[in-house]
Specification:
This protein has 714 residues and is mostly beta strands. It has three domains: 119 residues, Sandwich (Immunoglobulin-like), CATH 2.60.40.1930; 293 residues, YVTN repeat-like/Quinoprotein amine dehydrogenase (Methylamine Dehydrogenase, Chain H); 278 residues, YVTN repeat-like/Quinoprotein amine dehydrogenase (Methylamine Dehydrogenase, Chain H, 7 Propeller). Helix content is 3%, strand content 52%. The strands form 15 sheets. The protein has a seven-stranded antiparallel beta sheet, with no helix packed on it. A five-stranded antiparallel beta sheet has the order 1-53-52-51-50, with no helix packed on it. The longest helix has 16 residues. The chain is globular.
Length: 714
């Protein structure tokens, strides 16, 4: 019996230790819909059975069918990583993703079209690359050297050993009982014995003249991609005394290397170099292909080299003729979702490098692109007035677009502001353009076909965003905070008020006599503008991420909080703002807009997503009077796949708690805890980071307790 109790305690301790894996990543906010899966920088690629697994920074793991190398086809992705997906390895049913500052993710790839994270373990450094050998994963963890992770239980990966190298571990490969490490500027090649994975020990090293960034091992030779010092060959016949025996300079910066037969394939920043290694002491470049982009890692499979290109995604190079490599295919979704504006049944997404995207949101659960327009320059922000969209674009200024037919957008006029047009706001017949370091441009738009600048205020640092109220423009001036510029005299705009904001003032929205400023790392600032000449901060709340954007609806401020997703803040008492909801979005939340119905639209760097906030303190009007008893209803739907709603009734006001437990009785998350008035309430349970299986919802209060079963299925 004592042994049974001990086992139970150990299970509970393991669950507690790994509770971060199942932590609730949303509160009072649920996802309604999504469109786009845009890639960030492609860092690494491996190919297994005609599937290419690509680590793509913010956009996580992407899987493509490359059975036809000329037409790579996306079949699945997992982009809920909190960090920067840098390295990837695949073994059996699992992919192992090195996620920068957020360690190692274990992802089930049994169904490549429906990926599921099953485990996670943090590492102390920056996880750059990963290699698998049996039940062990070896992570190149930058300044923290090499970390050894047991994945005997993929759901519970655990660090069991480590060795801190002298440099910055960039990439690891395994050969026999050794891990070979490309260890950056100071480290060169490090050789670590893993005969005992729990106690790895360095047995040899060989310095290199450059930055050891990539590594491959073939036979008794280690090949080092050594930055601006090209490709180095190091004999590892005696792992305790590795010795450089040859090198081949490359024109660029060698970051990655893959060996196939008698050739080394080097990702050399500006292209792919093919080097004969028949004689490792006297290597010779035999072929090259130079392209735009940033070739970082390369994986050879059959007659093709698959290249992870920072700039242009996955590139497929035919190496059937090593002397004349030819690009035969590629996959990349261009753009960076930066800002969003909703008007009527359409959302207008500004996609840096990808132009303006017009999306029908008649059905928010299934948003659908209906048009795309690419103005000259790189668009940053948009303002909608009647049948016109006004777009501020880098290097090309203000563009006036007709959106009378949202499915057929066309440009009717433009004005080059000769600056860095970051944002635009409309007041009557004037457009106010936040024009970077040039200042605030006041542009006459009475004739949309012929906009013309009539005034300029230039005593600024770097204007990022602008909103207008009457003839006052409220602008965020990067490191200088909030500025109020009067354009009552449009030819001579002047600053009449200002207030500093710590860090960087990113965005601003006006509601009544208050301005809400997204202050980057300093959170949300609430500023009284009752007297525009004497601005006064009345409230502030720090957010965990970087506040890039802000929108208002009723008594709530919605903050696009960068890597932290979206934050909902109650500003019913502006002097004491309070966080009441959040959703950790898959990308990097930069822009935010609200529909008339209160739906939240987020430009999330890699995607446009739509969310719904449920006021935790509101009583739902379900068409019934105050409940006659304390009750907890069966969650609906049940079983559920993504989100289920839990409804409960309170006969009397009082303190209650709504908790989620697993079958072992371990509390997984708190859905609500606090005081409630009598009434009917609901809470959303989001299953995104829960494993499939049975859970129990427990409601406690008024001296009573009710429990309901709920089943999550994938």
């Amino acid at each position: 019996m004592r042994n049974v109790i001990l086992v139970f305690k150990l299970i509970c301790l393991a669950l507690i230790a790994n509770s971060g894996l199942f932590a609730q990543e949303s509160e009072n906010v649920e996802q309604v819909g999504r469109i786009y899966n845009q890639w960030d920088k492609a860092h690494d690629v491996v190919v297994v059975d005609d599937l290419a697994y690509v680590a793509t920074d913010w956009s996580g793991l992407q899987i493509l069918d490359v059975s036809d190398p000329g037409n790579p086809t996306l079949i699945g992705y997992w982009d809920d990583n909190p960090g920067n997906a840098i390295g990837i390895a695949v073994s059996g049913e699992y992919a192992y993703l090195a996620d920068g500052e957020y360690g190692l993710h274990v992802i089930s790839v049994v169904d490549p079209e429906d990926l599921e994270k099953v485990g996670w373990v943090d590492t102390p450094g920056i996880a750059n690359s990963v290699e698998v050998s049996g039940d062990h994963v070896f992570v190149a963890d930058d300044e923290s050297g090499v970390r050894v992770i047991s994945v005997a239980e993929p759901e519970n990966p655990e660090e069991i050993g480590s060795f801190d190298t002298i440099g910055n571990a960039r990439e690891v490969v395994i050969s026999g009982d050794y891990v070979y490490v490309a260890d950056g500027f100071e480290g060169g090649l490090r050789v670590i014995s893993i005969a005992n994975p729990e106690q790895p020990v360095e047995v040899g090293y060989c310095n290199t003249p450059g930055q050891a960034s990539g590594i491959a091992v073939s036979g008794d030779i280690a090949y080092i991609a050594d930055g601006d010092r090209g490709l180095r060959t190091i004999s590892i016949t005696d792992p305790e005394s590795p010795e450089e025996i040859g090198f081949c300079n490359t024109d660029g910066d060698a970051y990655g290397v893959s060996i196939s037969g008698d050739y080394a394939y080097v990702a050399d920043r500006s292209g792919l170099r093919i080097i004969s290694i028949v004689n490792p002491e006297n290597m010779m470049e035999v072929g090259t292909i130079e392209t735009e982009g940033f070739f970082y890692r390369v994986f050879v499979s059959g007659l093709n080299a698959f290249v992870a290109d920072f700039t242009f995604g996955l590139r497929v190079i035919s190496i059937a003729d090593q002397n004349n490599p030819v690009e035969v295919g590629s996959y990349y979704t261009i753009g960076e979702a930066r800002s969003i504006t909703v008007s009527g049944d359409h959302a207008y997404l500004v996609n840096v490098d990808g132009g303006l995207r017009v999306i029908s949101v008649v059905d928010p659960e299934n948003p659908d692109e209906v048009d795309h327009f690419q103005p000259e320059g790189s668009p940053n922000n948009i303002s909608i007035v009647d049948d016109y969209a006004f777009v501020a674009a880098t290097s090309s200024g203000l563009h006036v677009l007709s959106i009378e037919n949202p499915g057929a957008v066309w440009e009717v006029g433009n004005y080059d502001t000769t600056g860095w047009a970051n944002d635009v706001a409309i007041s009557g017949e004037y457009a106010c353009v936040a024009n970077g370091g040039r200042g605030l441009s006041v542009i006459q738009i009475a004739n949309p076909e012929n906009p013309i600048e009539v005034g300029l205020y230039s005593d600024v640092n770097n204007l990022l965003h602008v909103v207008v109220s009457g003839n006052l423009a409220f602008v965020t001036d990067y490191n200088r905070g909030l500025r109020v510029i009067s354009f009552a005299d449009s030819a001579n705009p002047e600053m009449i008020g200002s207030i500093d904001v710590p860090r960087k003032a990113r965005d601003v929205v006006i509601s009544g006599d208050l301005a809400y400023v997204a202050g980057d790392e300093s959170g949300l600032h609430i500023i009284s503008i009752a007297d525009p000449e004497n601005l006064e901060e009345v409230g502030v709340i720090n957010t965990e991420g970087r506040a890039f954007g802000v929108a208002m609806f009723d008594d709530y401020a919605y903050v696009a909080d960068g890597e932290n997703g979206i934050i909902v803040i109650s500003v019913d008492d502006p002097e004491n703002p309070e966080e009441v909801g959040y959703y950790d979005t898959p990308g990097f939340a930069r822009g935010i807009s609200l529909s008339e119905g209160g739906l939240i639209y987020v430009a999330d760097y890699t995607n446009l997503s739509i969310y719904r906030f449920t006021d935790p303190n509101s009583v739902n009007n379900l068409g019934v009077s105050t409940p006659s008893e304390f009750s907890l209803f069966t969650p609906y739907p049940n079983p559920f796949n993504s989100t289920t709603t839990i409804t409960y009734g309170l006969q009397n006001p009082g303190y209650i708690s709504l908790q989620l437990y697993n079958p072992l009785g371990h509390r997984i998350s708190t859905l609500f805890e606090g005081n409630r008035q009598a009434g009917m309430y609901s809470a959303n349970l989001v299953g995104k980071n829960l494993v499939s299986g049975m859970y129990f919802v427990r409601l406690e209060g008024s001296g009573q307790m009710f429990t309901r079963k709920v089943m999550l299925v994938r």
